[in-house]
Amino acid sequence: MQRGWCLIRPRHTPAHAAARGNKKGCGSSADEQSRPCWSVQREPAQPEQAITQLQQAISIDPKNGHALGHLIEAYALKKDARGAEDTLKKLKDADPTNQRLAALETVVSDLKAGKPVTIPKE
Questions:
Q1: Using the 8-state DSSP alphabet, how is residue 12 labeled?
Q2: Residue 57 class from Cβ within 10 Å (0-12 exposed, 13-18 middle, 19+ buried)?
Q3: What angle do CA 119, 67, 99 make, to 5 degrees?
Q4: Looking at the whole model, is its pTM more than 0.85?
Q5: Comparing C-alpha atoms, which of 97, 95, 100 is closest to residue 76?
Q6: How far apart are CA 97 and CA 80, in angstroms?
Q7: pLDDT at position 44, please?
Q8: CA-atom Rg of the chain in angstroms
């Protein structure tokens, strides 16, 4: 697993770069390369840090289905069922055709039922 580079996807949206405070894109400077991107993808996961970063990206682009999906995962890792469920509703409104919607619904329902949560692969 690469450290420092965004592990979500190889090309980044302007909202993603802005959320990282970098107009050129994630990983384009030595400072950017030394900081992890979405912390939910790190080993070990850092859901608190991921939630902060993802909320910042969503404040720039509230309909960013990709960031909303990862925010659901971060809330699930934190065992915050309410946050995950609220974000799932936002994702359904923002991107009703999202391919990961069914898997994320399962994550939220498992979390609410007290079952072990497995984060789906992208």
A1: -
A2: buried
A3: 65
A4: no
A5: 100
A6: 24
A7: 82
A8: 14
